[in-house]
């Protein structure tokens, strides 16, 4: 379970206190603000500017600027938070502030003090919090050929809690398997290296976590994909740590193909602390390289191709650190951007009467978080009453809420890296009409990702648009193709839009082809981002196969051949889907058509009230035989059609017990049995921002159709903790209850109030179930999860003893 945000219970924190003094060869333009740790008072100094602290209870962290120069105003900022943290400063303009460190990672707090002089004082404080929980480490995706029989899983690299020695306990569980699997299972599931037995093509999902005493890691899901035919290759490359300015060499040499085919490598550098990104050298080899002159995190994407199939594209992270031997601190770099505000997407000009944003876009070469120092409206049209004000959603941004007069508005902004400051200016021209907004390149997709050599690959950006309605110019380029290929990319007219948002590549060699698109309008303004996609050509292809059609449930599907106890007219929830396997792993498109029905019968989500009163959802309206014809294709070859035959019985032939759900408007839905509503573990469909202060319930009814029936195996439980106060219950339904033939029994599934948030999980799960003794297949399972939405939340931490 994940630690609960906003809590420090059982969280050990190690606080690194870093003053913001300058390096020996750098020069700061402002005096420094002195920040002191006010609490916790039991912090132990380890060495200069470093302290250690172990917390067992929730204690707020307080900072003070009392030792700084005399101030007219204070401006505190949380410059950096760990991923997932919801920490907030309680104040931003007082001498003393506090916040709660709610998850492990780095917290960077900045302070700017205005003392009335021209040079504000600035400083920053850095905290690093570490959690004592163990960490589960394993491969998250495994691909293997059918016929292997088994696959080994490996969690041996999982780690103990920080600073603790001992042995971990390993927990593995097979939670999903292919529809055709019946004998698959895990062996040695309590060891670091269990074995998964394989018996069918498809996907197996395994759940894995580790624990040490009462401390448990996050749960990891492992996806094992078993293929028939050519097995998908696997791309592998390790994350890297590097130093600014050094050559960074990546290595995908451990990538593999089950058949031993030679691999093609495709790397992309997609993200970094600054654009344009560094040049990636030799991106079609196993060991490309680049040089990073800016500290920060860089993300690369990698996939490999075996001549027939492409691997999954994986992320490779490169963390670049400042040179610890550098004698100077380099100043920040960047520019101030003047832009329009939603729905406007203009740059440098905006309609009179609308808002203008001024945002600093830049970086610090050493990777430090930048903090705002000051901003000023230097120029505005005569008679304008516009003011430059803070934009609380942009730490390095200010805004003019309303451009009230036509003309030029000029703004300056100063930012700091904690040592050096820079000042930049930008202008916004307020106009009456004629404002130009950026177009959007949209999202490029390959119509079919795989084709045979000699066939065209088609690429489309269906979502490209210009909100001004200006004509768009589509600049397509082919940025990758197989070695020796003479293929080119050609724009083609889109049949719906009539423009060139589509492009074609006539493939001539097996391999990968990647298309790139950027859009500009006829006034020369480019989109703020570009887009790209790839497809590949291969020499041969195997057609997909529709192996079966299965009935769908709310969150899962029945096994092939498994069906409901009885399917009647106007019964809601009788939906189905095809199980399609493609031997090459190509993307498959499937559809069905209803080719035969009883006279007057429909399969519809809009039945007439005379056929099915109160019905919602897709239903069969008349008894008889319905035939659905499924078809599928990988766009190269079609699968043989598959007919799915469904027999619907009339209501007068009803057997067993019939289940009905009822709402407050007395509308009802007949439900098929066995009935199962079972969201995945921890899935909250409708999270709430407020605690649930009273019980909630759902109304149901059971009707005995053709005999007397007895309820058995009534189970109610709290899913993640077994707490009595959080255990749901039935009302009106008890163990051994006999429902007489023709009798209808109404009952409630009642969910308890959830007044607070426990420290081990943000979600609470409830389970209620039973079955009918005389027909055990007639079963009912309902599970439900509630939890904190995390947005504008008012949930509070549970106090000791509040929940038993």
Considering DSSP H and I runs of 4 or more, what fraction of the residues is helical? under 10%
Q: Output mean pLDDT.
A: 85
Strand content: 35-45%
Class from helix and strand fractions? mainly beta
User: In this structure, how is the largest beta sheet organized?
Assistant: 5 strands, mixed
Q: Please mark out the parts with pLDDT under 50 across 5 or more consecutive residues, or reply none.
A: 1-29, 42-58
| Count of DSSP-assigned helices | 0
| N-end to C-end Cα span | 19 Å
Please compute the radius of gyration using only Cα atoms. 32 Å
What's the overall geometry? globular
Q: Could you please describe the fold and organization of this structure?
A:
The chain has 804 residues and is mainly beta. It is 0% helix and 42% strand. It has no helices and 55 strands. Strands 9, 11, 14, 15 and 16 form a five-stranded mixed beta sheet that branches. The chain has a five-stranded antiparallel beta sheet with strand order 47-46-49-53-51, with no helix packed on it. A five-stranded mixed beta sheet has the order 48-55-54-50-52, with no helix packed on it. Mean pLDDT is 85; it is low at 1-29 and 42-58.
């Amino acid at each position: 379970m994940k630690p609960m945000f906003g809590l420090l219970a059982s969280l050990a924190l190690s606080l690194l206190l870093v003053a913001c003094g300058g390096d020996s060869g750098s020069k700061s333009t402002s005096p420094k603000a002195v920040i002191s740790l006010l609490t916790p008072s039991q912090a132990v100094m380890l060495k200069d500017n470093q302290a250690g602290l172990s917390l067992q209870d929730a204690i707020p962290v307080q900072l003070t600027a009392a030792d700084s120069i005399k101030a007219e105003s204070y401006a505190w900022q949380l410059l950096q938070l760990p991923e997932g943290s919801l920490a907030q400063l309680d104040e931003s303009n007082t001498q003393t502030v506090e916040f709660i460190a709610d998850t492990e990672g780095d917290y960077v707090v900045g302070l700017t003090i205005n003392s009335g002089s021209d040079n504000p004082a600035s400083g920053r404080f850095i905290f690093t919090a570490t959690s004592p929980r163990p960490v589960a480490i394993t491969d998250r995706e495994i691909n293997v050929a059918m016929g292997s029989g088994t696959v080994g899983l490996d969690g041996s690299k999982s780690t103990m809690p920080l600073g603790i020695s001992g042995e971990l306990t390993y927990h593995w569980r097979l939670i999903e398997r292919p529809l055709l699997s019946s004998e698959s299972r895990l062996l040695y599931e309590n060891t670091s290296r269990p074995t998964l037995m394989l018996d069918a093509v498809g996907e197996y999902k395994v759940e894995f976590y580790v624990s040490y005493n009462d401390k448990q890691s996050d749960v990891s899901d492992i996806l094992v994909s078993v293929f028939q035919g050519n097995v998908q290759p696997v791309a592998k490359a390790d994350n890297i740590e590097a130093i600014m300015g050094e050559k960074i060499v990546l290595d995908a040499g451990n990538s593999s193909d089950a058949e031993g085919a030679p691999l093609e490598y495709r790397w992309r550098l997609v993200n970094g602390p600054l654009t344009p990104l560094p040049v990636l050298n030799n991106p079609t080899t196993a060991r490309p390289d680049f040089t990073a002159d800016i500290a920060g995190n860089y993300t690369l994407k990698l996939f490999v191709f075996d001549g027939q199939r492409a691997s999954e594209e994986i992320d490779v992270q490169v963390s670049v650190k400042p040179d610890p031997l550098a004698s100077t601190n380099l100043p920040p770099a960047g520019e101030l951007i003047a832009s329009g505000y939603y729905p406007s997407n203009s740059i440098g000009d905006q309609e009179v009467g609308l808002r203008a944003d001024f945002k600093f876009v830049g970086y610090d070469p050493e990777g430090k978080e930048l903090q705002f120092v000051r901003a000023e409206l230097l120029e505005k049209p005569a008679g304008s009453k516009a003011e430059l004000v803070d934009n609380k959603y942009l730490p390095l941004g200010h805004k003019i809420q309303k451009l009230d007069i036509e003309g030029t508005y000029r703004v300056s902004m100063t930012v700091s890296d904690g040592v050096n400051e820079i000042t930049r200016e930008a202008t916004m021209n307020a106009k009456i009409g004629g404002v130009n907004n950026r177009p959007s390149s949209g999202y490029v997709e390959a119509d079919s990702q795989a084709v045979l050599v000699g066939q065209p690959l088609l690429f489309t950006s269906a979502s490209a648009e210009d909100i001004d309605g200006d004509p768009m110019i589509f600049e397509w380029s082919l940025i990758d193709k197989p070695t020796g290929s003479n293929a080119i990319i050609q724009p083609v007219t889109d049949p719906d839009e009539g423009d060139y948002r589509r492009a074609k590549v006539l493939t001539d060699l097996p391999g990968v082809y990647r298309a790139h698109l950027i859009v500009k309008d006829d006034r020369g303004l480019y989109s703020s981002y570009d887009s790209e996609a790839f497809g590949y050509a291969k020499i041969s292809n195997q057609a997909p196969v529709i192996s079966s059609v299965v009935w769908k449930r709310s969150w899962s599907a029945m096994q092939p051949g498994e069906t409901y106890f009885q399917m009647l007219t106007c019964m809601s929830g009788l939906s189905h889907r095809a199980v399609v396997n493609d031997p090459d792993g190509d993307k498959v498109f499937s559809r069905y058509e209803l080719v035969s029905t009883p006279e007057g019968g429909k399969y519809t989500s809009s039945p007439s009230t005379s056929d099915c009163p109160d019905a919602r959802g897709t239903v069969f309206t008349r008894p008889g035989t319905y035939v659905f014809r499924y078809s599928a294709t990988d766009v190269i070859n079609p699968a043989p059609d598959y007919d799915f035959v469904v027999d619907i019985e009339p209501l007068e032939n009803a057997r067993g017990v019939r289940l009905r759900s009822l709402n407050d408007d007395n509308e009802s839905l007949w439900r098929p049995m066995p009935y199962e509503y079972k969201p995945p573990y921890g899935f909250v469909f409708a999270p709430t921002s407020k605690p649930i202060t009273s019980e909630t319930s759902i109304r149901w009814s059971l009707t005995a159709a053709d005999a007397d029936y007895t309820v058995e195996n009534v189970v109610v439980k709290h899913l993640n903790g077994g707490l009595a106060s959080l255990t749901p219950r039935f009302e009106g339904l008890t163990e051994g209850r006999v429902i007489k033939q023709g009798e209808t029994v109404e009952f409630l599934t009642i969910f308890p109030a959830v007044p607070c948030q426990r420290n081990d999980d943000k979600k609470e799960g409830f389970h209620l179930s039973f079955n009918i003794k005389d027909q055990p297949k007639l079963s009912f399972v309902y599970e439900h999860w509630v939890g904190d939405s995390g947005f504008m939340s008012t949930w509070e931490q549970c106090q000791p003893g509040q929940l038993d």
